[in-house]
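hey team, just a heads up i'm posting the complex here instead of the shared drive bc the drive is being weird again. everything in one block, sequence lines first with there labels, then the predicted structure for the whole assembly after. its two chains so it's a bit long, scroll down
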Amino acid sequence: MIEIRIHGRGGQGNVVAAYLLAIAASDSGLQCQAFPAFGAERRGAPVVAFVRIAEVPISRRNQVLHPAYLIIQDQTLLHEPGLTDGLLPGGAILLNSTRSSDEMSKQLGKPTVTLPATAMALETVSKDVPNVPLLSAFLTLTGLLPHKSLVHALEQRFKGEVLEKNKQLVELAADRVPAGLWKEDRLAASA
Amino acid sequence: MQQALEGSQAIAKTVAQCRPQVVAAYPITPQTHIVENISKLIADGVLDCEMVSVESEFSAASVVLGAVAAGSRSYTATSSQGLLLMAEVLYNIAGMRLPMVLTCANRAVSAPISIWNDHQDSMAVRDAGWIQLYCSSNQEAVDTTVQAFRISERTELPVMVCVDGFTLTHTLEIIDLPEQKQVDAFLPSFHFSRTLDPQQPITLGTLVTPDYFTEIRHAHHRAMLKAADEIVAADKDWQAISGRASGGLIREEGAKHADTAILAIGSVLGTLREAMAQYEGEKIKLLTLRCFRPFPEDELRRMCKGVKKLIVLERALSPGAGGIIGAEVRAALSRMAQPPEVYNYAAGLGGRDMPLDLLERILKASSKPARDAFSIFDVQLQKLPAGER
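-- predicted structure starts here --
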C-alpha cells in the first residue's frame, strides 16, 4: 500500500486532488481511499488531504502519519512547522515551486522535485489550481498509474472547456519531470 | 456496480434507489452532502420526490413526520446539533410508530464547538425509541440504508442509520452500489397501515391518560425488542440479493475460542480489523456492535461465553457516569454465570484520530486490573490546567 499526504491551501483544490488521484487509481483497477483532514476550511488556510492506494482492499481509516510521498501545492507552506513530519525513509516530495529541485532538496533535506505548477495552471486555466499538473507529474515520477487514468478521473469531474484545459495540463506536466525517478513497486505490500 | 465515490454521494444515490416520496432537510451546517446530492438527483430527473428545504432540523423532522402519516416513504439526514434540535420530534415519530429512515452523520455535540466525528449526537437520542444501526464502512452505509427502509416499514418503527461524519461521509473509496432492480426486488412499495385519510379519520399521537400510557410504552418497548429479528432477516435477505452482509446485530471476527474480545462501534472497526492482523493466532476477537437499539443482549452474552476480558471502546460518554455502551454491556453481562471482566474506554472524541496502534495500546492498558470502571483514552493531561486534570 502507498500512502500519500497532500498539503495545500483552501481554494487550491486540495481535496479534489486527493479524490482525483483515488478515482484514477480505481480506474486502473486498484483499491483506493481519499479523505481530507478537516479543519475550519476557508480560502487560503492550510489544508491537508490523504490518499491510500493498494492492490488489496483498504480497511484502516486513521490519518496518514507516515506517507511515502508528500505533494505540496504551495511553497509558502514550507514555513509551517511539521510539514514534512512522518515522511517514510526513502520518501520523496513533489513541490509546487519555481525554484530548482536541487535547491529545494537541499533546503528540505529530502529528495524533492519541483514543478512550477501555479504558472502552468495560470497560463492554461487562468486560475491558481496547481493540483492537476502536480498529479500528472506525480504519475510520471512514480509510474504508479497511467496518465489516461487521471484523464478518466477528470472526465468524471469536469466538462467542456474546463475539462479540455485540464487535459492539456496533464499533457504539459507529464514531460516536465524525470519519468520513473521514484519508481514505485510497493503497491502489493499490506502496509 | 463498483464506483469510487464519496460516502455521502453513495448514500444519496442509494436513498434515491429506495424511491422516497418526500425528503425534508435543513440544508446548512451541520448538514452533509447527502441531501445536496439527493436534491441534484431530483433536479436531474433521476428521482421523482418532493424535496422540502426547511428552516431548521426541528421542521425537517416535523415535515417527514407528517409526510409518513400521509402515507409517503420519507427520509431525512442530519448531524450533531441538528439531531439534538430534532430530539422532541424524534420521540414523536417513534411514539406514533411512524416508519422512516434518517441518516445521522455522527459528529460531536457543542460546546465547545466541534465539527468532527464522535457518537455523542446519536447516543443523546438513544432513548427516543428509534432503531439505531451503526456502519463501519461506506459499503455498509449503502447496504444498511436499503435494509433500513424494509426494517422500518415492516416494524413500523423509525430507523436511524449512523454513519461516522467525515471519516465515512467525506471519504472517497470504492463502493459497490446496488442495481435498481436489486433494490426493487428487496423493497416493495410503501403502504402505511395507518395512513391519514379524511374518509376514515383517525388521530395519531393524541393525549393518552395514565390509564393507557404505560401499556403504550410497553408495546413500543416490545416492538423494539421484536425488531431484532427483522434486522437480522433484512441483512440475510439483502445478502442473498447483493452478496454482501453488514453484520446483523453484532459481528464476530477473529479467534474462535477467544479469551479477549474488543467491542466497538462505527468506522473505527476498519482500523481495528487491520490492526488485528498482528494478533493472528492469538485468542483475540473483535465484536462490531452494529445494532445499538434494540440492544442485542442475548447475542452479546452468547458471544461473550468463555471470554475472560471484554474491552468496550466507544466514542461518547455520559459525563459523571462513564461509558454509555459500557454500562449497557455490563448490565447485559451481569446475567451471565461467569461474565468477562469489562474494561471500558472512550476514544476518538471530537475527531481525535484513532491510529493503527490504538488496539495495541488499549490491549496493553487492559493487561492489568482497571483502576476505574471507565476512562477516556489518550487524554493529554498537560493540556489542562492543574485543577482540571
